[in-house]
TrEMBL record:
<protein>
    <submittedName>
        <fullName>KDO2-lipid IV(A) lauroyltransferase</fullName>
        <ecNumber>2.3.1.241</ecNumber>
    </submittedName>
</protein>
<dbReference type="Pfam" id="PF03279">
    <property type="entry name" value="Lip_A_acyltrans"/>
</dbReference>
<dbReference type="GO" id="GO:0008913">
    <property type="term" value="F:Kdo2-lipid IVA acyltransferase activity"/>
</dbReference>
<keyword id="KW-1003">Cell membrane</keyword>
<keyword id="KW-0012">Acyltransferase</keyword>
<keyword id="KW-0472">Membrane</keyword>
<dbReference type="GO" id="GO:0009247">
    <property type="term" value="P:glycolipid biosynthetic process"/>
</dbReference>
<dbReference type="InterPro" id="IPR004960">
    <property type="entry name" value="LipA_acyltrans"/>
</dbReference>
<dbReference type="GO" id="GO:0005886">
    <property type="term" value="C:plasma membrane"/>
</dbReference>
<keyword id="KW-0808">Transferase</keyword>
<keyword id="KW-0997">Cell inner membrane</keyword>
Length: 307
């Protein structure tokens, strides 16, 4: 590309990012003035109204048709629109994360906004001196998971992919500095940072359901995709136990956080963790979760782009 054209493209992209970021920040400032549940409902409704008019809606419909070829057009459209409501809530939850998390293990089940399934596992892992790897997907309010872990005395360093908009990415990183632990953006050096945490006996958390162009060939919903091999590589290097965790939105603005039993990663004939088979095992867990609550997964990225 001509250097002048390249420079002009970068300038206009930066300008677009700033405009988009300021619009989002203005909305979040308004929502911050509302009670948390009211703000979340408003964000849900706004996203359902605006989302279907964006190019991302077409991508969501395409992905849903790929994942659920047996479903009719009405179900696909309804699920995509419900998913926009979830995305609106995710954006607003950055404002209210610490206010939302009201879990109290002494409280009777069904009371408060947050309930935890697998509390006994959190307690047991707190007293385990070995490093642990937790993984989840872009389902429900996944941001509550490290906060929950911290409540049980588990400090978790989480790997996350920043938004493409750099202005929004800086704000998101600042908003995520809650009592939930530390963050490592997924860029050059991230693997070394996580390895250092595990080497020191710390715990790490990872989202495993995004496209990774140089990843291992796997399938998701029966279709080919590539999956980041970092988690099984770290588990093999540091002999870590691996635990699946997910967040599920419940009616009435409530949440269920679930820590599942340890996932035994597949091993080869030599006894070492099989990287490719383990990547597939991670996909299988996430697919099970998505099938449970399809409207709560993030359908707006090209998970099946295979190159």
């Amino acid at each position: 590309m001509n250097p002048r054209l390249a420079k002009a493209w970068k300038i206009q992209k930066k300008a677009r990012d700033v405009v988009a970021a300021q619009a989002l920040f203005a909305i979040l400032r308004v929502l911050r003035r509302l009670p948390p549940q009211t703000g979340l409902r408003v964000a849900d409704r706004m996203a359902r109204l605006i989302g279907p008019f964006t190019p991302r809606h077409r991508l969501a419909l395409e992905n849903l048709r790929l994942a659920y070829p047996e479903k009719d057009a009405a179900w696909i459209e309804a699920t995509a629109r419900a998913n926009w409501g979830q995305m609106g809530r995710i954006a607003a939850e950055y404002v209210f994360l610490d206010a939302i998390f009201d879990y109290d293990p002494e409280r009777p089940p069904g009371e408060g906004l947050v309930e935890v399934e697998g509390m006994e596992r959190f307690v047991a892992l707190r007293d385990d001196p070995r490093p642990i790897i937790f993984f989840t997907g872009h389902l429900g309010c996944f941001e509550l998971l490290p906060i929950c872990a911290a409540t049980f005395g588990l400090d978790v360093t989480a790997l996350f992919r920043p938004p493409n908009n750099r202005v929004i990415a800086r704000e998101v990183l600042a908003a995520r500095r809650t009592r939930g632990g530390h963050l490592v953006p997924s860029k050059a050096g991230a693997a070394w940072a996580l390895a250092g945490k595990l080497q020191a006996g710390g715990n790490v958390g990872m989202l495993v359901d995004q496209k990774f162009a140089k990843g291992e060939p796997t399938t998701f919903f029966g279709r080919p995709c590539r999956t980041n091999p970092l988690l099984p590589k770290l588990a093999r290097q540091f002999d870590c136990d691996v635990y699946p965790a997910r967040a599920v939105r419940l009616p009435g603005g409530r949440y269920r956080l679930i820590l599942e039993p340890k996932l035994d990663l597949p091993r080869g004939a030599n006894g070492e963790i099989d990287i490719r088979a383990s990547c597939q095992a991670l996909n299988d867990v996430v697919e099970r979760w998505v099938r449970d609550t399809p409207e709560q997964w993030m359908w707006f990225h090209r998970r099946w782009q295979f190159s």
